[in-house]
Amino acid sequence: MLTGENLIKTGAISSYTNRGKHVTSHRELFILEKGGLLIDNPGMREIGVLDSEAGIQNVFSEIHDLSIKCKFSNCTHINEPSCAILGAINSGMLDKDKYDNYIKLLKENEYNTMTKLEKRKEDYKFGKFIKTAKKQIKKYKIDFDR
Predict the structure, then answer these.
(1) Which pLDDT tens digit goes with each residue over 16-65?
(2) Fewer Cβ in 10 A, N or C end of the chain?
(3) How many domains does the structure of the chain reveal?
(4) Is the CB of residue 90 less than 8 Å from the CB of residue 96?
(5) Which residues face 28 on adjacent strands?
(6) Do both 59 and 97 map to the same domain?
(7) 71-87: burial string, b at 16+ Cβ within 10 Å, e else
(8) DSSP states along 6-32
(9) Is residue 90 part of a domain?
(10) What is the domain range of residue 89?
(11) Phi, psi of 117 (to 5 degrees)
């Protein structure tokens, strides 16, 4: 469907699990007409990127160069004062969409480099946040369906 042609072998959705089944047995990269990429990588639940930190610095070299000019060496480039990157966005020197993609990739890289224990701790904290939010919704009788 995404390629506009019948290039990839597909199978029926399982009536038992209501999920698709793997029918391909090799990796393949498809370049889509409008510039996207589609990777058929059978049997993989997630894909990691090796040396992604260096890759992010290379792809976003303009942002990386700006980050060196930030006032604080541990600047997250999200809300710190005197952040050179945020200043460049505000002045129109840096594209906001490019910045948003940069931040997304940094967060994804941070998550992918976490240990299982660190991920478990983050999941636990998020679970506590959700539990607290549910209690507050009940306590204040917040109706989100209005």
Answers:
(1) 888 877 777 778 888 888 888 888 877 665 666 666 888 888 889 999 99
(2) C
(3) 2
(4) no
(5) 40
(6) yes
(7) eeeebebeeeeebbbbe
(8) --S---PPPTTTSS------S-EEEE-
(9) yes
(10) 52-112
(11) -65, -45
